[in-house]
Amino acid sequence: MTTRPPFIHQWQEAAERNNSALCVGLDPEPSRFPAPWTNDPLRLFDFCAAIVDATADLVCAYKPQIAYFAALGAEGQLEQLIAHIRKVAPGVPVILDAKRGDIGATAEQYAREAFVRFNADALTLSPYMGFDSVEPYLRFPERGLFVLCRTSNPGGADLQTLPLVASNASSATGASAHLGDELLFERVARLAALDWNRHGQNGLVAGATNPADIERIRAVAPEAPLLIPGIGAQGGDLAATVRAARGNFLINASRSVLYASNGRDFVDAARREARRLRDAINQEVHAASTAPNAP
Ligand SMILES: O=C(O)c1cc(=O)[nH]c(=O)n1[C@@H]1O[C@H](COP(=O)(O)O)[C@@H](O)[C@H]1O
User: Fold this and answer.
1) Which atom of ligand 1 is nearest to the CA of 234?
2) Per-residue pLDDT tens for 34-89?
3) pLDDT value at position 199?
4) CA of 169 to the centre of ligand 1 (A)
5) For all residues of the chain together, what is the average pLDDT?
6) Most buried pick, 21, 40, 93, 163, via CB within 10 A?
7) Which of 27, 94, 160 to mutate to test the pocket of ligand 1 (most atoms within 8 A of CB)?
8) Rounded-to-integer distance, Cα 27 and Cα 277, Å
9) Count of C-beta atoms within a 10 Å radius of residue 211
10) Is the residue at 18 inside a domain?
11) Prediction pTM value
């Protein structure tokens, strides 16, 4: 493992240098590659490297999704890609999207995979198994951790928006009591960003498809870094998201940038879309900060 500067510093410096809150997600899907690479699993690296080369001055982070590589037995190409990012965009941090979550002993291995094997600067994690499943990652205090809080997918509401209820054992009726209307994702926000955040390295994942819930997260965790997917292919509302998030966020876009064109011009099209989105985010940040009721 080579020593890396703290994720938070790298992210903030890249954001400032490139005037960007945009994170490009690297989710390579060979069936969507342009000819002659279409359906060729040996081209994951070439495709993603071309995207990185075209966007390195427009982003504050890259987020490779491990499943796209592992499903094809192509973790070697992921290692190659991270090495390439280090070379052509040395100040841009890599967030490995793996959404890990398991008992402590297994989590230790996942932490080694992310931070030693792949030498990622940050990782996405599931909070579902509780503190001891997150603790092994805290042993890498300079790396960032983004804990799933309110996810962007439709099924995110199946569990995450449930109100927490305490069973009141002392009650003669055995009735349950609501815990002040706290929702499950708000408890996750509080635990991950405050109670579990021993070294100040924890952030939260909050989807742009639910800006009202981002506002609720901010009420609990006003300072936490937010990784926000859901803009672009998933149809999230950029203006409402930026207003709700109130700074200290990265907005991820994967498919809308990677596959802006499926022709020979895919590199130019990806660059155009990344620049358009970076500028649109900046415009919304400006509009939010100059709105009459801005904080
Ligand atoms: O953790 C994530 O990155 C993530 C969380 C979430 O709630 N929703 C979500 O879409 N993601 C990831 O963000 C990316 C979104 O991709 P696009 O919809 O193509 O921009 C994918 O890699 C997802 O796995």
Assistant:
1) 18
2) 999 999 999 999 999 999 999 999 999 999 999 999 999 999 999 999 999 999 99
3) 97
4) 40
5) 95
6) 93
7) 27
8) 18
9) 21
10) yes
11) 0.95
Give residue 208's domain range. 7-154+197-290
Instruction: Return the CATH number at 103.
Output: 3.20.20.70
β-pairing verdict for 249-253 and 22-26: parallel
Cα 242 from Cα 23, distance rounded (Å): 14
Which of 277-288 are b and which e, b meaning 16 or more Cβ less than 10 Å from the residue's Cβ?
Answer: bbebbeebbeeb
Nearest atom (ligand 1) to Cα of 95: 3
**Is this prediction's ipTM beyond 0.85?**
yes
Q: Nearest C-alpha to atom 8 of ligand 1 is from which residue?
A: 152
What is the Cα Rg of the chain in Å? Answer: 20
Catalytically active residues, by annotation: 99
Residue 165 lies in a domain: no
State the average pLDDT over residues 164-190: 73
User: Which tens digits make up the pLDDT trace of 240-269?
Assistant: 999 999 999 999 999 999 999 999 999 999
Q: Number of structural domains, the chain?
A: 1
Residue 221 included in any domain: yes
List the structure tokens of 79: 């290692």
pLDDT at 167: 58
Task: Name residues contacting ligand 1 (CB within 6 A).
Answer: 25, 27, 65, 97, 99, 124, 151-153, 205, 207, 229-230, 232-234, 252-256
